[in-house]
């Protein structure tokens, strides 16, 4: 947490010095804006990150030929922010612009192409197109296997992402297998409080939850949460994910009041930092709605589920499985009323 604010302070000092010495459209400023954008991105402040990435892009667009690799970096950065903001069509548009440049500029097994395939896959995953997501994650993984040492952290990212898709299609044991491969690499490569380890613990927790092993799931979610508390700002979106996942376990264990307590902590952060139509907000509303349903407060349940449905219909493709989940939940509650 302190590291991000310190980094921001230094980048902004450097930027002010450059402003006095260089013209406003100097390429150095684009790098400076990118760096500041990256820090905001890491802090979970996506609107601020987008603002700085777009400033960088404006300079590079004027200064560089249209197929320059630095433009691809810009497109990737902008795509990543849209992806985090849940605007998947915009994210895909920018990731594909980046990919076209990289395909022309780089040899077919270059690690940057692997990153590009990975980015595109993550959007398909968010859109619920899991077969397409798996196809692109595997393209990414093949390049990484050839280009990197077997314990490289970037391979762990691949294993995690492939695990995520298997989890989404309901193959929990396959998901766990990939999550554990990722975790073995990260444990060797990273310090014990690194945010990527928190993500890894979180993923293993998800697999155990989906397999019905709730005590194991809670154990891993809490490990993840402890790291995030130390490493991230209290309103970082990953903190909301932690609260949400812990809430899910309590729900599955039948402790609906405890579940609601954690869901509401997650919602508070998401309402604060995410755009009003972000898919993660819909997840929060859906979870809270079902917790009220479990507590037999059906009018409250319906109110939250309807909020979830409105967002999901606006932000997700019409065929996304989560839209059906929410509609089924609404039907279930209406029958109980």
Structure description:
The protein is an all-alpha fold and 337 residues long. Among the domains are: 150-231, Alpha Horseshoe (Serine Threonine Protein Phosphatase 5, Tetratricopeptide repeat); 242-337, Serine Threonine Protein Phosphatase 5, Tetratricopeptide repeat (Alpha Horseshoe), CATH 1.25.40. It has 16 helices and no strands. Helix 8 (153-168) runs antiparallel to helix 9.
Q: What's the helical proportion of residues? A: over 70%
Q: In one word, what is the shape?
A: globular
**In the CATH scheme, what's the topology name of the domain at 242-337?**
Serine Threonine Protein Phosphatase 5, Tetratricopeptide repeat
Q: Point out poorly predicted stretches.
A: none
Q: Calculate Rg over CA atoms.
A: 21 Å
Number of strands: 0
Write down the overall mean pLDDT: 92
End-to-end distance, in Å? 46 Å
Please state roughly what percent of the residues sit in beta strands, choosing from under 5%, 5-15%, 15-25%, 25-35%, 35-45% or over 45%.
under 5%
Task: Jot down its keywords.
about 325 residues, mainly alpha, Serine Threonine Protein Phosphatase 5, Tetratricopeptide repeat, 16 helices, TPR_rpt, microtubule, TPR repeat, motor protein
């Amino acid at each position: 947490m302190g590291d991000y604010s310190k980094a921001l302070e230094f980048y902004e000092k450097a930027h002010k010095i450059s402003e006095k010495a260089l013209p406003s459209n100097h390429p150095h400023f684009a790098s400076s804006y990118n760096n500041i954008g990256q820090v905001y991105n890491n802090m979970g402040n996506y609107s601020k990150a987008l603002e700085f990435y777009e400033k960088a892009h404006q300079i590079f667009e004027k200064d560089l030929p249209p197929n320059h690799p630095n433009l691809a970096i810009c497109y990737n950065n902008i795509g990543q922010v849209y992806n985090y903001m849940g605007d998947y069509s915009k994210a895909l548009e920018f990731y594909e612009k980046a990919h076209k440049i990289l395909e022309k500029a780089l040899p077919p097994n270059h690690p940057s192409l692997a990153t590009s395939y990975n980015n595109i896959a993550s959007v398909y995953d968010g859109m619920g197109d899991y077969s397409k997501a798996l196809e692109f994650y595997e393209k990414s993984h093949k390049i990484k296997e050839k280009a990197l040492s077997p314990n490289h952290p970037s391979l762990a990212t691949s294993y995690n992402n492939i695990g995520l898709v298997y989890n989404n299609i309901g193959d929990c044991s396959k998901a766990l297998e990939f999550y554990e491969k990722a975790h073995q690499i990260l444990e060797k490569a990273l310090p014990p409080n690194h945010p990527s380890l928190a993500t890894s613990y979180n993923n293993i927790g998800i697999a155990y939850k989906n397999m019905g092993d709730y005590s194991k799931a809670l154990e891993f979610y809490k490990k993840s949460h402890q790291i995030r508390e130390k490493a991230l700002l209290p309103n970082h979106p990953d903190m909301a994910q932690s609260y949400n996942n812990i809430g899910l376990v309590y729900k599955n264990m039948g402790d609906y009041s405890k579940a609601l307590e954690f869901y509401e902590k997650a919602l508070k952060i998401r309402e604060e930092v995410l755009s009003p139509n972000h898919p993660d907000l819909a997840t929060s509303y859906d979870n809270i709605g079902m917790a009220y349903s479990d507590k037999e407060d059906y009018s409250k349940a319906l109110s939250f589920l309807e909020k979830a449905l409105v967002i999901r219909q606006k932000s997700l493709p019409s065929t996304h499985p989560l839209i059906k989940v929410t509609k089924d939940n609404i039907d279930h509650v209406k029958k109980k009323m």
